[in-house]
Structure formats: structure tokens, C-alpha cells
Amino acid sequence: MPTTQFTVHTSLSPSDAMTLITDFGPERSKRWPNVDDAHFEVHEQGTDWAEVTEGNAMGWERERYSWDTSAGTVAIDTLESNLWGRGSGWRYALTPASGGTDVQVTLTRVPASLRGRLIGALIPVVGARTLGRQFQSVLRKAESR
Fold first, then answer.
1. pLDDT > 90? residue 61
2. 60-68 sheet: strands from edge to edge
3. How far is Cα 24 from Cα 127, in angstroms, rounded to an integer?
4. Cβ(54)–Cβ(61) below 8 Å
5. 8-state DSSP, 111
6. pTM (2 d.p.)
7. SS3 call for 68
8. Pairing state of beta strands 100-108 and 89-97?
9. What pLDDT is recorded for position 1?
10. pLDDT category of residue 127 using cuts at 50, 70 and 90
């Protein structure tokens, strides 16, 4: 089961970082590089959870987001995907830090297809560096607003 972990610092407050991660409005596909409009749908949403499909032509997931604002945590569990099986998901832990927030990200993948196994093999090797840079780009754009 491929896993990677990284931490990114942002000048956003923990509540602003939480809002960025859990905002499922029409701008989401413009903020997140691996989400396109054709593969984005909000199925249901509550005050501290959402069920959405996100992705792009290469890979998509139907996921359940659940978050605890007071604890600063977000869990994203894969429900269905063309690449990943159950047990896959993301975990975000937001910690107040000097001048903003440290966001610790953990990604776990359970491959469910040949393409998933091939991509999954790269996660421990380049996942932290590549995904960390992508996430940092998302945060920097949000900081500049």
C-alpha cells in the first residue's frame, strides 16, 4: 500500500486553510490542479462532510470528506475510483505555526487497477516532492488573494 507524507507551511490561518480544503464551490477546479470541471461533482454535503467526485481524464475518485474544524483535521476516504480501492485516502492535520499554519498531509493508496499499481509504485519515490509542490502552489495562490 503506497503511502507518502509531507508538511507544507502557509501564511493562511488554520481556519482559512480549512476553508480552502473544504470549499466545494464552482472555483474548486481552478484552485486544485488535479481537478477538472468534467470530473467534479458534489453529490451531497453537510456542515462537516461532503461526498464528491474529483479528478481528471487520467484518474477520478468519488470521496467522502469529513472534517473537524476545532481539531484541525480533514479525512478524505475513497469510495469509488478508476485507480484506487477502499482504504485509499488523504489526511490533513492543520497546526497553528509561526505566521500561519503547518499542514501535514498523508496520502495512502490501495491500487485497484494496473494503472493504479503503476502510479502507486511512484508515490513512495516522488510523491512527497511532487504533491508537496502542487499543494504549496495551491496555498500560495490562496495567500495572494
1. yes
2. 3-10, 100-108, 89-97, 73-81, 60-68, 49-55, 41-45
3. 24
4. yes
5. B
6. 0.94
7. strand
8. antiparallel
9. 82
10. confident
